[in-house]
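Treating backbone geometry as a discrete language has practical consequences that deserve illustration. No coordinates are needed to read the tokens, only the vocabulary itself. For completeness, the protein is quoted in full, as a sequence line and a line of structure tokens:
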Amino acid sequence: MKLFICNRTIEKLEVESLITDLLKTSDNAIAILRETEHSENWKSIVESKMNESDFVVFAIGKETFKSDQLKWEYAKAKQLNKQIVGIKLSEITEDSILFCQGFQVFDNAEQSFKYLAKTYEDDRKLKFEQYKMMVSSTEKVTESRMKVNNLFFTITSSILSVGFVLGKTFGFTIAAMIGMFVLTVLSLAVSFFWERLIDSYGKLNTGKFKVIDKIEKQLRTNMFEDEWKILTEEIKYEPNTRTETKVITYFRTFILIVGAFQIIYLGYLLFQLIPSCNH
């Protein structure tokens, strides 16, 4: 469990004592993160450490939230959706307590650690359930994607087959060839809808994997990230979306070739209708 401690510099000694009590109460099971250096980029450092932490803890004393830095840290913790708790210092004032109406405030380190430990475990269980749901939904998207590929391949192939049967039935006449060409254009249009849908599925999976990666980092594990590095850097894996798009492109090229032959043959039939000149 990682705690980011926010406090005023003038209360440094009492906060050091508070941190010692927290470590003692937890049997050193927690990690304390702080930003005590007032550098020019302190805001980015604080934000980075807050992102790394599980809780943001405010040591609340006299006029704590009259400090612009503490106000900024409180706003940033809320923006990052971090769980915020407060621990009272000896000189806490009524104004400071009133400011803390949006989060839990505890009297001492022992009391706060009990709450933090229980909340941390409950939060990890919830995140693990969310993780399982996201992984399951990703697998369902992959299954749906395969069904869509089979469906669109069947549709485009069927349209081309109907066109061929039409041409053969009517002896590849001019009317039959026009009908075949119309169906070929229809199958070409369907291929573009097919490609757009595959692209949408790819973006949907990308979003899901980003959420999974975020949850994994919160659970202190990186299985998907490690797997992706192995696939892309060692095995040179090609993403499904790219492979499927290539297949559609090859299939579309075949349709265009079929259409070109139809136009050539239709032109040949029309040329036969042109009266020849007799000398």
Notes: Helices lie at 12-25, 42-52, 68-79, 94-99, 109-169, 174-218, 223-234, 240-272. The chain is about 70% helix and 10% strand. The CA atoms of residues 130 and 215 lie 8 Å apart. The beta strands are 2-6, 31-33, 55-60, 83-88, 104-106.
